[in-house]
Design brief:
Ribosomal Protein S4 Delta 41, Chain A, domain 1, Structural Genomics Hypothetical 15.5 Kd Protein In mrcA-pckA Intergenic Region, Chain A
Length: 207
């Protein structure tokens, strides 16, 4: 069952900004102020307990799930597919997650959060190679061109504001000109590793 409670509660529990809130918003500012404080009535006075190795693996796996908005079933499926490939399992796992269409839309600097990118995809606002795709988990490929299905999409307030944001950093494997995005290379695991220890996630599923 997908979690539908307060998003800031999850981020505070994990002790890291998971990108649930739009950067620069009041809600995001409140989260950053309380990020080091665990949720709950006694959060400010409660110390974070030292975690066992198994608990650390679980927490990293949960952070990865929340970061990319995937279910346990989906993440486990990505791990199994990654483990069947020759090479570094962590790299392949990262690729499967990064190449999700909702993530590509977000990474290209079209929306402020992955949740809003997922909403655009599900509501039929996104085309891949001029074909409408409404499945967030769709795996984009090198050379794919991602555009809006309607001109009016660019006028959605949060989309318009994000497209005009000059400070957004778009990863090297993507490029965007106006409202047209293109996947020019295969993604790596470097960006994910800045927030998540993928080795612990692999260890969790390898038990």
């Amino acid at each position: 069952m997908r979690y539908t409670g307060p998003k800031n509660r999850i981020a505070r529990r994990e002790g890291v900004d998971l990108g649930f809130k739009t950067p620069g918003s009041k809600s995001h500012a409140r989260l950053l102020k309380k990020l080091s404080v665990p949720p709950g009535q006694h959060g400010a006075s409660r110390r974070r307990r030292k975690l066992s190795d198994r608990a650390r693996q679980l927490r990293e796996k949960q952070k990865l799930r929340y970061l990319f908005l995937v279910s346990e079933k989906q993440l486990k499926k990505y791990f199994k597919e990654a483990s069947f490939k020759k090479g570094n399992t962590a790299v392949y796992l990262a690729k499967f997650l990064e190449k999700r269409l909702d993530n590509v839309v977000y990474r290209a600097g079209v929306t402020p959060t992955r949740a809003s990118a997922r909403q655009l995809v599900v509501h039929g606002h996104i085309k891949v190679n001029d074909r409408l795709v409404s499945i967030p988990s769709f795996q984009a490929k090198k050379g794919d061109i991602i555009t809006f299905s309607k001109e009016s999409t660019a006028k959605i307030p949060y989309v318009e504001k994000t497209l005009l944001n000059k400070d957004l950093i778009i990863p090297d494997w993507l490029e965007r000109k106006a409202t047209i995005s293109k996947m020019i290379d295969e993604p790596t695991n470097s960006d994910i590793e800045k927030q998540i220890n993928l080795r612990l996630v692999i260890e969790h599923y390898s038990r």
